[in-house]
Amino acid sequence: MDPMTIGMTAMAAVLILLALRVPIAFALAGVATVGTFLVYATRTGSFMPDRAINPTSSVLFSNFFDLVHSYDLSMVPLFVALGNIAFYAGITTRIYDAAAVWLRPLPGGVAMASVLGCGGFSAISGSSIACASTMGRICVPEMLRMGYDPRLATSSVAVGGTLGALIPPSVLFILYGIFTETSIARLFLAGILPGLLSLVGMLLVIAWWVGRNPAAAPRGEADGSSRRQAAIAAWPALLLFVVIIGGIYGGIFTATEAAAVSVVLTVAIGFAQRRLTLEVLWRAIRESLGQTAAIFLIAGAAKIFVSFVALTGVAGAVVGWVSDAQMSFALLMLFVVIIYIVLGMFLDPIGIMVLTLPFMVPLVEGYGLNLIWFGVIVVKLLEIGLITPPVGLNVFVVSNVVKNVSIDKIFSGVGRFLVVDAFVLLLLILFPVISLLIPGGW
């Protein structure tokens, strides 16, 4: 059996295992291990398993060891811890509190505040699913109590949660940077304008929705003193965002150093405001350890799988097929969009990224495209996948939090936001300057 056949069979096996709901880490690592063993065992033309044991073990352990000891990967536990500690310190929810007080008198104001709150939460936690889960518990019950249309109340949080994929710091950008060997700091900066553009698009959808149906979002009231108090209370979240983005953009910190400084600052603020105790801090650290272990396991399995794909030559063959087809830029991007949208309907974002990058990166490089720009496109597509039926993870997260609103109603509301997301994606593809203006390279 030649390496190409083994590689293609392995790809089919991974897709089948994922369809059967086998965890992505076990599917990738298991298939890659068996595939690597078969490649080495059949290299001489006959099956010789004794000659495959040592090289297979070397490939597995060296790739996992190199990844876990990567300096860039050290920012993952830091940013995960930052999000959890900031949540328990009450920092991540104060942007929503401030926005809700200020925007409550406007049509759809609380729904807009939910999106803004999700953006603020994402700017600190870097996790879309954690954002949807947390903000769903806070925002949706309040909107339903005010008489909001359940579709608007739930969908605004589900789509707002996707901002965690683009607005830095983003775990997806970190993993993309590690696997493509591109600057994570530049990726963070590249996500700012696309993230803000997506945010504005969501706010416009809410304004249009409420403009057509004012009954979908009754207005509330707020007094001047509560507005001032809410705005002042949001300062820790704004400070952390300035430290992360300002520090990286100003060249003061690397992304990893910015994460470390932000964690220390968050702990200090939490204890100073008496919102953190040693018991609560330990709870946040425990949760961070569990989440980090899951991410590391997936990333390690992906690294092994990438090595296996390179060994079989499948990635090079795919690039050759596309080159021979002489696809135009438009057809190439259409191909990329279709692949990610289809996979996004069934798989989680990290799984999609690690599964596709071994093939997509050589393809993009062959066309001479900017990998920073392509990273933004990929993350935007993964963001769309979080709310695309039939398996939009953010939709299911919100549905689990809000028991009295059916999934079909949430998807019905999300559909209106998907139109604007598609338009934003088109702008990002046609005008790379949107992504490359801040990090440079345009």
UniProtKB/TrEMBL annotation:
> GO MF terms on file?
transmembrane transporter activity
Q: What species is this protein from?
A: Paracoccus aestuarii
Q: What does this protein do?
A: Part of the tripartite ATP-independent periplasmic (TRAP) transport system.
Give the UniProt keywords, A-Z.
Cell inner membrane, Cell membrane, Membrane, Transmembrane, Transmembrane helix, Transport
Q: Where does it mainly reside?
A: membrane
Which positions fall inside the TRAP C4-dicarboxylate transport system permease DctM subunit domain?
13-433
This one is known as TRAP transporter large permease protein
Family, according to the entry, reads as follows: Belongs to the TRAP transporter large permease family.
Q: How does it sit in the membrane?
A: Multi-pass membrane protein
Its annotated compartments are:
Cell inner membrane
Pfam families named among the record's database cross-references: DctM
User: Which residue windows are transmembrane per the record?
Assistant: 12-41, 73-91, 111-132, 152-178, 184-210, 230-249, 255-272, 293-321, 327-347, 359-378, 384-402, 414-438
Q: Which GO terms describe its cellular component?
A: plasma membrane
Q: How does the record describe its quaternary structure?
A: The complex comprises the extracytoplasmic solute receptor protein and the two transmembrane proteins.
